[in-house]
Amino acid sequence: MTRLIQTLRQNRLTLAKTASYYCIHISVAACVAYAVTGNLWASLTLSLLEPTIQAVAFFFHEKAWERRLQKREPRAETGAVTA
Fold it and tell me: What residues does each domain of the chain span?
C-alpha cells in the first residue's frame, strides 16, 4: 500500500492532467454522440466508455514521454547529438 501511495504522489501532476482531460473528453464525446444518435442512453454509454480507455492510454503515453526525455537529458549535458 505504501508503494501505491508513493507512486500516486510522484505522479500527481500527470494524474491531475489525466483527470481534467477525462472530464473534457467525456463532455465533448457526450455532445457528439447525442448529436449523432439522438439517444441519451447511447450517448452517455459511448461518452463514458471511449474516454475512459483514452484516459488510461493518455497516462501511459505521458509516462513514456517522461522516460524518453529523461534519457535525452544526460546526452544533452555531454553535447552529444540526439535524434
Answer: 2-78
